[in-house]
């Protein structure tokens, strides 16, 4: 039996850290365990410095040298530092306490800091550090990776909508021929939806708390009963960490904002699944062709094939991301009484959920870059579908008061082959003004697109 003893891209259980590792690399320093440790150090440092500025006689304001040393630990936090914390955790069996001990070790280099080191993690529960760290992780991932990747797709689609604004295309409602549109207008629809989804992702305010073991500042007030700890905690969360303060919590911040963010990403992912499936269908119909790349193989046995694998991969990964994000959003806001630990292990999978989203964005971007519209195929499809003009003819008949227009067109077109000639003959037999008959006969499936081109150019 073969055995695997080393961790590598080939032996990783998750393809995010194996096959697809280069495509999710931007998330790794932000949402990995390294990223969590980094943010924990940042929160502990800022809380510590803020305490020194609070006016307590027992803890004087730290010198610039001390502040520089502490913030330098955050700025230059390395994998070696993370490993040192991990080594401490082997003894403590508590990850947040390991960060506290690591910081105290680093403070020994400066007598001023060593003397004040018991104010590190002062009055804090682990969740004061964790919830702020998770919020900072998500904030960075959203701003640095998720939104830029989504923006690249939206910008590419907007450019395609403009370029193909006037390229007519047969619509297929229920899979059947329907009133024509343009390729650009169909893409513009997706752009409009994604821009709304993007605003919702960007607009979620990430909340955090620093209020102790059950949210009531019990330990804080035991130390300094007359100090306004709530105002102090708010300043740390909002002014020093750039998050939004939540005044009402149990031991954990209840994660409602996280759930809102994950739901917003799910909405974006759902729109992209819809789009990926549509493009897959259009490739199948021949509306789009895919640029060829030397050396690539579509099938191991059928040499002619150029499969829409980028859109298939995107759909699959968006489905995985959505399943995980949905579980996160439904589970995280639920905690028994003042705290249970079921959220802890789940939160460690934020990077997995968003990693599959980013991987799907990458697949979609590559797929879009390969697409080439086949105007001849689109035109041929339209020319074989003159029945779609029945809508226009019966609507003009209604305007002029002709009897039973819908029923007449139904008898002419339903289940029958309609040609330019047969439709023109029907129009010539109508009691319509001459100019109206000529206008109707000038319509073709290719020019009966309404305001599609204008709407596409406007996006």
UniProtKB/TrEMBL annotation:
InterPro entries: Fumarase/histidase_N, Fumarate_lyase_CS, Fumarate_lyase_fam, Fumarate_lyase_N, L-Aspartase-like, Pur_lyase, PurB_bact, PurB_C. Pathway: Purine metabolism; AMP biosynthesis via de novo pathway; AMP from IMP: step 2/2; Purine metabolism; IMP biosynthesis via de novo pathway; 5-amino-1-(5-phospho-D-ribosyl)imidazole-4-carboxamide from 5-amino-1-(5-phospho-D-ribosyl)imidazole-4-carboxylate: step 2/2. One of its GO terms (biological process) is 'de novo' IMP biosynthetic process. SUPFAM superfamilies: L-aspartase-like (SSF48557). GO terms for molecular function: (S)-2-(5-amino-1-(5-phospho-D-ribosyl)imidazole-4-carboxamido) succinate lyase (fumarate-forming) activity; N6-(1,2-dicarboxyethyl)AMP AMP-lyase (fumarate-forming) activity. Its EC number is 4.3.2.2. One of its GO terms (cellular component) is cytosol. The keyword DNA-binding does not apply. PROSITE patterns: FUMARATE_LYASES. This is Adenylosuccinate lyase.
């Amino acid at each position: 039996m073969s055995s695997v003893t080393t961790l590598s891209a080939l032996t990783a259980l998750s393809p995010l850290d194996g096959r697809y590792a280069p495509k999710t690399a931007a998330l790794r320093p932000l949402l990995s365990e390294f990223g969590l440790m980094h943010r924990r150090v940042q929160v502990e440092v800022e809380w510590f410095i803020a305490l020194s500025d609070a006016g307590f006689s027992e803890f004087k304001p730290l010198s610039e040298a001390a502040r520089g040393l502490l913030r330098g630990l955050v700025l230059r936090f390395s994998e070696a530092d993370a490993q040192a914390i991990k080594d401490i955790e082997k003894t403590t069996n508590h990850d947040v306490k390991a960060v506290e001990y690591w910081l105290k070790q680093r403070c020994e280099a400066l007598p001023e800091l060593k003397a004040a080191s018991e104010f590190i993690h002062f009055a804090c529960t682990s969740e004061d550090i964790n919830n702020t760290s998770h919020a900072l992780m998500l904030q960075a991932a959203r701003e640095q990776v998720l939104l830029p990747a989504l923006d690249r797709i939206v910008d590419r689609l907007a450019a395609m909508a403009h370029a193909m604004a006037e390229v007519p295309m047969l619509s297929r409602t229920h899979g059947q021929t329907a009133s024509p549109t343009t390729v650009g207008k169909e893409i513009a629809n997706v752009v409009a939806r994604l821009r709304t989804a993007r605003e919702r992702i960007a607009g979620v305010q990430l909340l955090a708390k620093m209020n102790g073991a059950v949210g009531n500042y019990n330990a804080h007030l035991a130390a300094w009963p007359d100090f306004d700890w709530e105002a102090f905690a708010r300043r740390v969360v909002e002014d020093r960490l750039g998050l939004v303060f939540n005044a009402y919590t149990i031991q954990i911040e209840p994660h409602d904002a996280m759930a809102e963010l994950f739901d917003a990403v799910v909405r974006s992912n759902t729109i992209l699944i819809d789009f990926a499936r549509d493009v897959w269908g259009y490739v199948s119909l021949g509306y789009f062709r895919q640029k060829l790349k030397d050396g690539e193989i579509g099938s191991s046995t059928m040499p002619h094939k150029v499969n829409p694998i980028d859109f298939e991969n995107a759909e699959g990964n968006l489905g995985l991301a959505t399943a995980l994000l949905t579980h996160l959003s439904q589970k995280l806001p639920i905690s028994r009484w003042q705290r249970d630990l079921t959220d802890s292990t789940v939160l460690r999978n934020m990077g997995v959920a968003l990693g599959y989203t980013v991987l799907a964005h990458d697949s979609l971007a590559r797929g879009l870059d390969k697409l080439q519209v086949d105007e001849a195929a689109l035109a041929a499809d339209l020319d074989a579908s003159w029945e779609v003009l029945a809508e226009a003819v019966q609507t003009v008949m209604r305007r002029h008061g002709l009897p039973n227009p819908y029923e007449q067109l139904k008898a002419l077109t339903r289940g029958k082959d309609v040609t330019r000639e047969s439709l023109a003959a029907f129009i010539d037999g109508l009691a319509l003004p001459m100019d109206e008959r000529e206008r109707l006969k000038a319509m073709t499936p290719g020019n009966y697109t309404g305001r599609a081109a204008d709407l596409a150019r406007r996006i």
